[in-house]
Amino acid sequence: MITYEYKFRVAYPDTDKMGTVHHSNYAKYYERARWELLRNIGIPYQTIEDAGIMCPVISMKFKFVKTTKYDELLTVKTTLKAIKGVRIWFTYRLQNEKDELINEAETELAFVGLNNWKPCVPPPFLVKAIEKYQHDSTTK
Amino acid sequence: MITYEYKFRVAYPDTDKMGTVHHSNYAKYYERARWELLRNIGIPYQTIEDAGIMCPVISMKFKFVKTTKYDELLTVKTTLKAIKGVRIWFTYRLQNEKDELINEAETELAFVGLNNWKPCVPPPFLVKAIEKYQHDSTTK
Amino acid sequence: MITYEYKFRVAYPDTDKMGTVHHSNYAKYYERARWELLRNIGIPYQTIEDAGIMCPVISMKFKFVKTTKYDELLTVKTTLKAIKGVRIWFTYRLQNEKDELINEAETELAFVGLNNWKPCVPPPFLVKAIEKYQHDSTTK
Amino acid sequence: MITYEYKFRVAYPDTDKMGTVHHSNYAKYYERARWELLRNIGIPYQTIEDAGIMCPVISMKFKFVKTTKYDELLTVKTTLKAIKGVRIWFTYRLQNEKDELINEAETELAFVGLNNWKPCVPPPFLVKAIEKYQHDSTTK
């Protein structure tokens, strides 16, 4: 189980006339957060596409707990839950500076060929990096 | 149970480098679709906010079944599932011109005060319009 | 000189905490408007990309005259000003239902190869459609 | 003349099917960049709104010089050109890691009352912070 904390500020266009963040933006926040998790174990997402494989989202769900607003400094705590077969699962907890929970979410992504969109196994270098990170964490 | 079909074309900026629609946009499509459902029973969403009440999303989930692409003509089949207490539920089926299912989703929204964000009952004119529409449909 | 009127409603996520439309969205409105102009003369933009040519924006400018808000029904009056060499120019006037000017803008686009991004002449079927439309309009 | 360099990575949803960044996103990049410039002289933009004043964009123009792509690390070099009467002007140069120019732009913003949208002079604490920063830079 790999975790990573990604911090960012709420941008102005992310807000809507309610004065808070439009709900469609959370999917964007979590996408950034999961790729920063991968970057942190040495695999920027682009290297997966460079290897001819993409990771489209195949299901996602969100629970909105508390509002947030422009310029707040938020933290996404991302967990890589599992990678199995042709899929990978992440969960997310979004918190504000007072450590209050703003939103929680889950996403399920598939590995598919860049050209044919057919499901495929993840690139070996990704599986290896995940195993290495988990091994190193356990033995620390 | 009220249903409504909303048609639209996929815009260019909705696509990403995968060549398909970025997953964050579906939340925007469904938001438009549910407010068109309400407009169709005589209650444009703005009239709810004009009455001092807002409808933030409190949970949503999406299942991505098939890809779509730029300029495709899509149809959202929205169903108002229930309105009860301080909440309202919608479900959505997004289809392409061949009637293939692209995506399905559910959203749960709350009624809250525009100024205090406190949960509240829906405006009476909305409840009445829903009841009237359902009554008229049943007796037709 | 070809003109076209494209009507649309302001979507909720297009607004920001000012309560009006975020300025970045006007570029999206005008993009839709110019491709609807082309669709109207028989050339959906996708057919240009299908012919191996893309039209990236190379310069654009905007003048914000009046604010607009959620759910307003707006009209973009687009004019295809010129197509010459490897470029095409459009101008736009955005108006509300009272015919008040909200925004005006100009965009300059280039024709480039889909694979090499090298400037190229527009596809002959586009030039022909523009000439035919102009001829038909003049002789009507 | 105050300048500031803001660095960021291109996010996935900022790309479109051309494989590069959709032109509407540059307005968002520059908005972040100018408010980071103000934060750097001690005035987060939110403090201006807290004082009852907003800064809507009243004109903007962009010149697209070179493409950029997903995950590239970009730098916006923002210059506060002038603040005079009820307006403030910024210019921007967007560069990639090789210091190649991607885009350049200018924006003109107005100061307006939060409630009445009437043009007004900038808040004194902003003018003071700008003057202090310029004075300190000159005498260093």
Descriptive report:
The structure is a homotetramer of 140-residue chains. The longest helix of chain A has 16 residues, at 25-40. The first copy, chain A, starts with a strand and ends with a helix. Chain A is globular, with a radius of gyration of 16 Å. Chain A is 27% helix and 36% strand. Chain A contains 3 helices and 7 strands. Chain A is of the alpha+beta class and 140 residues long. In chain A, a hairpin with a 5-residue loop joins strand 5 (87-95) and strand 6 (101-110). Chain A has one domain (2-139): Thiol Ester Dehydrase, Chain A, CATH 3.10.129.10. A 5-stranded antiparallel β-sheet of chain A has the order 1-4-5-6-3. Chains in contact: A-B, A-C, A-D, B-C, B-D, C-D. Strand 3 of chain A pairs antiparallel with strand 3 of chain B.
Distance between the termini of chain A: 14 Å
CATH superfamily placement of chain A = Hotdog Thioesterase
How would you spell out the order of helices and strands of chain A?
EHHEEEEEEH
- CATH class categorisation of chain A: Alpha Beta
Tally the beta strands of chain A: 7
Oligomer classification: homotetramer
Total domain units of chain A: 1
Average pLDDT reading of chain A? 97
How is the biggest beta sheet of chain A arranged?
5 strands, antiparallel
* Rg of Cα set of chain A: 16 Å
Count of separate DSSP helical elements of chain A: 3
In spatial order, strands of the major sheet of chain A run 1-4-5-6-3
> Percent of residues of chain A in beta strands?
35-45%
CATH architecture of chain A: Roll
Helix content of chain A: 25-40%
Classification by helices and strands of chain A: alpha+beta
Q: Indicate the CATH topology of chain A.
A: Thiol Ester Dehydrase, Chain A
